[in-house]
Amino acid sequence: MSQKQNDNLVSENSKYLLGFSLIPEIGPARFQKIIENFASIEEAWNSSEAKLAEIFGNKLAQKILTYKNKVELKKELDLLEKESIDIISPQLPFKDFPGINSEYFPEKLQEIHSVPFILFCRGNLELLQKNQLAIIGSRRPTHYGKQVLEKLAPEIALSGLIITSGLAMGIDSLAHRMALENQQPTLAVLGSGLGQKILRKSFNYRLGEEIIEKNGLLISEYPPNFEASKFTFPARNRIISGLSLGVLIVEAAERSGTLITARHALEQGREVLVIPGNIFSQQSIGTNNLIKQGAQPVTSSNDVLRSLNWKITSSDQTENSEKAEFEDATEALIYNKLSFDPQPLDKLVSKCKLDISSISIKLSMLELKGMVKDVGGGYIRN
Fold it and tell me: What is the pLDDT of residues 324-362, one digit of tens each?
């Protein structure tokens, strides 16, 4: 068989891989059973109920056949082409289908438990071959969490690591945004399909499109029109950590879904790096508990890069207070009463024991110097 004929066969038989991904009952573990029981993917797709029952039992075999009979493979392939969605897979042992775009399937992802048998991708597939750092955290970050990310993420992105996250509200979205604002591509792993019918419902639709426009990548193990559910996000999280050298957790509440990703990362032998948080903040209970359990605390981008044995590209910067030039003792007093949590003006008046007019003038001067910021709910160190 010529190379061209073989390529055509692989392309043609990819429809069966796509077909299996459309059957909800077929996940990585059950697809592995298909691999073990069939030499040919076409034979597997066209197998009888009796053969499926032999492998999966009668009840499940009937479910699989019911779904399979509803699938229109040509229509599903046409949808992928229409929406510019690529599919990739690991190397497969089928004699008529060794896999598709397998050169892009990340080696690190093949190390994890429950390796996805298919990935749907929109954007720059080359990112899957680059070293990545997952940055995840709370969907409702505090001003402190946002400030940490605004400081660390650009330096990490500019180091050459690809920032990977889940395109969720809060820290995930901010991490992607920080990469894009520094002209660096970013990779998002979704818990839903990548079809426009699904993505247009997402609050983050525009950010997802911008990621693709700016040489980034969206990936999912779910077919294009698959709706996310509470069950798909934990599965998605194993891919986020599996793709990465390590996971940086910025903020997480005590029962945060972020902690599921941390657990996956530990099971996968990935570095778990944690930003220490305010002990009075609900959004830091999960992260501080991780540190108690042995996760590595980090307070700078260089801490992160050293932990991953990655090249250091910038020197650590000291706090503004160490190199600040205050106009007078009143400016220094006000600055030192501020933290990374918003302080309302009336609280500053009470803490500093100064009149509101004097504090307002000094805060304006500190803002001009870039040392403090008005964030709506009060003032913080910048």
Answer: 578 888 888 888 888 767 888 888 888 888 888 888 888
What type of residue sits at position 224? P
Token pair listed for 214: 């700016």
Nearest-10 crossing angle of helices 329-337, 345-352: 120
The CATH architecture assigned to 320-381 reads Orthogonal Bundle (1.10)
> Phi, psi (5° rounding) for residue 372?
-135, 165
Yes or no: domain 126-307 corresponds to CATH 3.40.50.450: yes
Is the CB of residue 114 less than 8 Å from the CB of residue 28? yes
Q: Which residues contact residue 9 at a Cβ distance below 8 angstroms, ignoring those fewer than 6 apart?
A: 1, 96, 97
Encoded tokens for 61: 């075999």
Per the structure block, which two tokens stand in for 130? 């680059």
The beta-carbon contacts of 210-215 under 8 Å, at least 24 apart in sequence, are 210/180, 211/123, 211/167, 211/176, 211/180, 211/185, 211/186, 211/187, 212/122, 212/123, 214/180, 214/183, 214/185, 215/123, 215/124, 215/185
Taking the domains of the chain in order of start, what are their residue ranges?
A: 3-117, 126-307, 320-381
> Percentage of residues in the chain with pLDDT exceeding 70?
94
DSSP 297-364: E--SHHHHHHHTTPPP-SPPPPPHHHH---SSHHHHHHHHH--SS-B-HHHHHHHHT--HHHHHHHHH
Q: Tokens 């229509």 map to which residue?
A: 75
In sequence order, what E strands does the chain have? Answer: 86-88, 119-123, 132-136, 162-165, 186-189, 217-220, 246-249, 271-274, 296-297, 372-374, 379-381
So what's the pLDDT on residue 313?
Answer: 59
Give the three-class secondary structure for 248. Answer: strand
